[in-house]
Specification:
Length: about 300
């Protein structure tokens, strides 16, 4: 593991370690003033409706912060966008755990909903710190390679189209892990700490099965569940389309919707992808099986439109 890789791993795990240390120090300092059983479950109005022992609170705190940190390090692989998101999640969880401790210093513990807004503010500040840190990380991308430019045989007037889902098994595993974490935290620590993993699960669910379509409108990538958000490259912006192998880390710096110098795309894995050279000189890539057929069809449709 090179020095740059070590710095990326450290930047990814640091926010969760800091959040754990802050909450742990606070727990130790307040322990003698806290009740034997802590209010950890709260209703929508902020009233306590469930308790947990101090040992159980410590176990949940440790599992939540260090567990999320480990998952983030393994999943993010030093991707800048996920580093920033990790800082936001760590800040959000850190504040809610601290607010829960301070709420238990009162005779009638309460955790009103405005605390969520404050936690979101802390998350925003933490994300800004993570963004500043991630900018200092070096990002070197290799030049892109061109694949063969193919075309599809077709009859005049024939209607052509192609569609395929581009999901990966890893996305579904992460989705199940996020939802499972949310349920465990919900049952043991209340709904507030369960919000971050639940939101992560909802985001993963939305983007776990994107649909890639090639037709007379060009190339379209949608979530597969909802009509929006979606990405589209119209035919009049297609200079050529090719199918080739891409390396998610080396070429795009990670997974997800990636924007880099001279290129962008929806990169869910390393492997087969359709790569479009747009008329503005930038490349747009989507990792999907059957990309050779999609690229050939896209070239054919672009030629057909240009001949009219």
């Amino acid at each position: 593991m090179g020095p740059d890789r070590i710095r990326r791993v450290a930047a990814t795990g640091l926010p969760f370690l800091l959040a754990y240390v802050v909450d742990l120090v606070l727990f130790v300092r307040l322990r003698d003033r806290l009740p034997h059983r802590l209010a950890t479950h709260f209703t929508g109005t902020g009233q306590a409706n469930g308790t947990s022992g101090q040992l159980n609170f410590f176990i949940v705190l440790t599992a939540l912060m260090l567990g999320l940190g480990l998952v983030w390090v393994l999943v993010s692989r030093g991707v800048r966008g996920l580093i920033v998101t990790g800082w936001a999640v760590a800040g959000f969880c850190c504040y809610l755990m601290a607010a829960t401790l301070y709420a238990n210093l009162r005779t009638s513990p309460e955790l009103p909903l405005w605390q969520i807004a404050v936690a979101a503010g802390v998350a925003a500040v933490s994300a800004a710190v993570g963004r500043g840190l991630s900018r200092s990380l070096r990002s070197e991308l290799p030049p892109a390679e061109d694949g063969p430019v193919e075309r599809l045989d077709h009859a005049d007037g024939e209607t052509l189209g192609w569609a395929r889902y581009a999901g990966t098994r890893l996305m579904w595993i992460l989705l199940l892990a996020a939802i499972g974490t949310a349920l465990v935290v919900l049952l043991t620590a209340g709904w507030q700490p369960a919000v971050p993993p639940l939101l992560l699960g909802l985001v993963l669910l939305l983007f776990a099965r994107p649909c890639v379509t090639v037709d007379r409108r060009g190339l379209t990538v949608s979530t597969g569940w909802l009509p929006w958000p979606r990405l589209r490259v119209p035919l009049n912006e297609v200079e050529r389309a090719t199918s080739r192998e891409v390396d998610a880390l080396k070429e795009f710096g990670g997974w997800g919707y990636r924007v880099r110098a001279g290129r962008s795309g929806l990169i869910l894995r390393s492997g087969e992808a359709i790569v479009i050279r747009r008329t503005n000189g930038r490349d747009f890539a989507v990792t999907v099986d059957g990309s050779a057929d999609a690229a050939a069809l896209l070239n054919t449709l672009a030629d057909r439109q240009g001949s009219r």
